[in-house]
Amino acid sequence: MNEKNEKECPVFLDCFGRIKDPRLDRQKKHKLIDIIAMAVCATIAGADGWVAIALYAKSKEAWLRTFLELPNGIPSHDTFGRVFSLLDPQAFQDAFREWVGVIQGKIKGIVAIDGKTARGSHDRANGKQAIHIVSAWAVENGVSLGQVKVDDKSNEITAIPELLSLLDLKGCLVTIDAMGCQRDIAQQIVEAGGDYLLAVKGNQETLAEDVEQEFKHAQAEGFAHMDHLYRETVEKGHGRIEKRQYWYTRDIQGLGTLERWPKLNGMVMCRATRTEKGDTTVEDRYFITSADHDDVALIADAVRAHWHIENGLHWVLDVAFGEDQSRIRSGYAAENIAAIRKIANNTLKQCISRKGGIKAKRLQAGWDDRFMKEILLAL
Length: 379
Prior knowledge:
The protein has 15 helices and nine strands. By secondary structure, the protein is an alpha+beta fold. Among the domains are: 147 residues, no CATH class; 97 residues, no CATH class. α2 packs across α13 and α14 crosses α15.
């Protein structure tokens, strides 16, 4: 880092600068933090692979030297790939979370947990499966909080607790789909000072049956014997009408299955009725929650907000960053580049000085060094 520009250097250089270099001394021709910084800048600017990252760095070498040392110039694309394949993903995640904490402060509100497969990361020739990563998304802030790769011989049930243990959940409402509807996971969230809203499906067969039957009986009786709160929303657009109805009750006494869940305070039914081109479909979904307030609007918003992780993160990673097409897969590289994409996405989402979506902002960052500098100073 050049001393004359110390005050204008991105915060992330400090956070990621403490990562231990995995290379042997004789291999350290280029500084690790320089390699990481160039990969982040290039990814923000539209590069989606090691060759593109190296080309971007080469074309912007003079500008990069205003805040990076680059003692031996720009690394080759092979060097970028080798370093990120060796880099400890846990250490990279620790730096990522530290950086998020510095730029965002305490996260509040809804934290959505969900998984995504990077489909292009599989390697048939070497028998390597595509990596599956479970991510945490702060809905109100619109930022990624962290990620954990699912072990090849396991599933999200083992990765979710690991991810939760890395997060400060105090005061947050954690939403997870049916895969994460486990008592141990609920207990972990409560012990961390948060609340949970868990989707209920067939993986908890008895629980799902009890919740569904309770609501069906209540509806058949016009809710005469179930204290409940109700909310209805209607959305119209793109030739589709979608009505959502929410029934929220804290009347769960006497249900043995439910009473075994930690701090359980209520259950929710959501009925989504969609009409498009004259065809109507109806889908019922069920949830349990430890939230102890009586605001059905907050519960309804949380049910809907969970899917922000699909639209705000997973969809963007595929469409704007081409994650599913990426063939990066050697060693830890796929996991580490996934984190870099999240750094880029976090930063670009928070940048409101330029119009357009993430893809358009990436192009502008690649074209305009002033805009890139603005983004970096926000890092």
